[in-house]
Automatic annotation (TrEMBL):
The name this protein goes by in its record: GMP synthase [glutamine-hydrolyzing]
GO cellular component: cytosol
Keyword tRNA processing: no
Function in brief: Catalyzes the conversion of xanthine monophosphate (XMP) to GMP in the presence of glutamine and ATP through an adenyl-XMP intermediate.
Origin superkingdom: Eukaryota
One Pfam family hit: GMP_synt_C
Record flagged with keyword Ubl conjugation: no
Residues in GMPS ATP-PPase domain copies: 207-408
SUPFAM superfamilies per record: Adenine nucleotide alpha hydrolases-like (SSF52402), Class I glutamine amidotransferase-like (SSF52317), GMP synthetase C-terminal dimerisation domain (SSF54810)
Organism: Handroanthus impetiginosus
Amino acid sequence: MDAEDVKSNLVLILDFGSQYTHLITRRIRALNVLSLCINGTSSLKSITDLNPRVIILSGGPHSVHAPNAPCFPPGFIDYVESNKVHVLGICYGLQLIVQQLGGEVRIGEKQEYGRMDIKVTKAGGLFANKKVGDWQSVWMSHGDEAVKLPEGFEVVARSKQGAVAAVENPGKRFYGLQYHPEVTHSLEGMETLKHFLFDLCGVTAGWKMEDVLKEGLRVIESTVGPDDHVICALSGGVDSTVAATLVHKAIGERLHCVFVDNGLLRWKERERVMETFERDLHLPVTCIDAADQFLSKLKGVTEPEKKRKIIGNEFISIFDAFAHDLEQKLGKKPAYLVQGTLYPDVIESCPPPGSGRTHSHTIKSHHNVGGLPKDMKLKLIEPLKLLFKDEVRKLGKLMEVPQGFLKRHPFPGPGLAVRVPGDVTLENRLEILRKADEIFIQSIKDAGIYDSIWQAFAVFMPVLTVGVQGDQRTHSYAITLRAVTSQDGMTADWYYFDQKFLVDLSTRICNEVPGVNRVLLDITSKPPSTIEWE
């Protein structure tokens, strides 16, 4: 399927703030259908320019009765009807359809949250593969309910409590589910989504990573002029490496990469990543040792956001110097900057309607290069900005990036600075952390569970604790171990280790890392915590 055919089968998600919105996008892409997500209150032009085949209205934490409740733009109903676009409302999206088309939504007598059973009341349409009276388990999350449907709509499923669970008006191509089909707790949810997309909407599956690669190369080749040069700051992570590899495939030696050793890298990180860049990927990379420069600026700094800002500013300073040196060498300024921005970065930078925010909260400064000096005037190339992390790994595999590298756990841009609360330069804190972290990661690999974990790392605890080692009282530091499972890092749960694994690991760290006499395990999910400690 060519790029135009893929776009003509686009499924567009209008995001009204559900925690599951990104999951809908991922589930649809897993069916080899291109899916994009934009703010639910985006202008009608933003929607029509994308020319979607199907529009899904997401759930959200709002009530349609609330003042300034988010809604799709004026003219939306006329647009989808005149262009024969199929619309599926999920949870809040269903209630929005009902209210905006003349029905009635009220606060439910009994609110429904969590796992619930629903019964099919009319076969055909959304439940063409079911019989009247069939039950299925779904995941509900709503306080309001539809009590009067717009003209032409029918109830096709109800909950055990009698609330409307699914509605449809096939003539107008409007459908609604009061539950979340995208979550795994809705056992037949994916079956319903597949039936809706392929049987009711006539969508054709054809979005493949091979096409993403081909289109990515075409866009880069047509964007970058034949004499233009491009620079890229490599972090040693999967995203920037895959982005650089893609651009290198398109323009060859006109790509100039820089890898900065900021003194905050993991055990032998510099040697390992440079070997991959040079031996396996043949990327043109300049390695800059700036450890002293970074650590001298961080001396005495304890506030997490200030540490991030200092590190970001130093990267920019080094990057600026690299760009100027390159300009002297080439006799012309580089024209473009490559960044490994991913789709979750794009989604998270566009807060949902009704949140009261015009930009994302400062949870932490973004790790991509930002705030570049104005005189650099570099245009951005973000070849991965529509992809999730697992899709980036698939793209990397197509370009023969080594599997061992693609499976590496994410590593933050500020490095170990965010894994040492407080001043990172005191005593030998970084060295203690590096050794403990290496033992932890190698133990996970030896146990064969590395690929089952999204991210694992050690954290240095800047507190002295009392212990007994070699019949002597000690006053040493503690190490916390953090390991989580996740699909894309937007939510995460802690990994359940075998008890013997933890016992052996704790013993090794305390025995092999001087200055440590205690090992802790972080058992917090995201939310409420973030994955990193700072």
